[in-house]
Specification:
Blueprint (H helix, E strand, L loop, with lengths): L1 E3 L2 H8 L3 H4 L2 H9 L10 E3 L1 E2 L13 E6 L2 E2 L3 H13 L4 E6 L4 E5 H14 L31 H19 L27 E4 L2 E3 L4 E2 L2
Parallel strand pairs: 8-10
Antiparallel strand pairs: 1-2, 2-4, 3-9, 4-5, 4-6, 6-7, 8-9
Length: 214
């Protein structure tokens, strides 16, 4: 599972003393990390949902740096890179993590395993609502053959969210962003973001993107 670095995540994993018990790199990012690009987030592999497709991988709480050799900017970028690999029929999907750790999955097998893994872990969708396409006709959508369907209630929720955004735009009111917004101090933007979730290829899932899907 993939998620983004956030105070809520650090507190959930390491409690009130997360600044003492959490990984040094996460604490450093939380206190001193600075955005180099607009919308930049620290994406974390929070855990791997056990399945035959990811047998042997036992990583947790590692920062994700690249997908298929491309440096990532945020969680939405991860989704774009994985789905681009699907469209290009790439045989494997590769995730480069901190400490020289690498996860390489058979792309077709990972996609096929996604519905099974979601069901085994009682997860309704392979992505957070903010990462789902608006509808099946959206230019960013993925065909049912390559992406497992989310529950009807989740898609309905997404539709309502998008309709509310459109109404706000019509009223010339700035809508709240769908993706997590980084906390901004008086001088510079930090990398500390509110949480979002996803589950991706082969049980690599988290707050933001489900690595199982891919």
């Amino acid at each position: 599972m993939l998620t983004v670095l956030s105070r809520a995540y650090l507190y959930h994993e390491w409690g009130k003393e997360w600044h003492k018990k959490g990984p040094v790199e996460f604490v450093d990012d939380a206190y001193y990390g600075v955005m180099k690009h607009d919308g930049q987030q620290v994406v974390i592999l929070s855990q791997i949902l056990v399945d035959d497709i990811n047998n042997g991988y036992q990583f947790a709480n590692l920062r994700l740096n690249k997908v298929n050799g491309v440096p990532i900017n945020n969680l939405a970028h991860v989704v774009q890179l994985v789905e681009a690999g699907e469209r290009n029929a790439e045989p494997f999907v590769r995730f480069d993590l901190d400490r020289d750790n690498v996860v390489i999955l058979d792309a077709a097998a990972a996609r096929a395993s996604t519905p099974r893994i979601l069901k085994q872990n009682n997860i309704g969708c392979d992505k957070s609502i903010d990462l789902l396409p608006f509808s099946s006709s959206s230019s960013t959508s993925v065909s049912p053959a390559t992406s497992p369907p989310c529950s009807p209630s989740t898609r309905k929720k997404r539709l309502m969210m998008m309709q509310q955004q459109q109404q706000q735009q019509q009223q010339q009111v700035q809508p709240p962003p769908l993706l997590p917004v980084s906390i901004v101090d008086d001088k510079e933007k930090t990398l500390f973001s509110p949480p979002t979730t996803t589950t991706g290829a082969a049980g690599v899932s988290g707050t933001g993107v489900n690595v199982n899907k891919y």
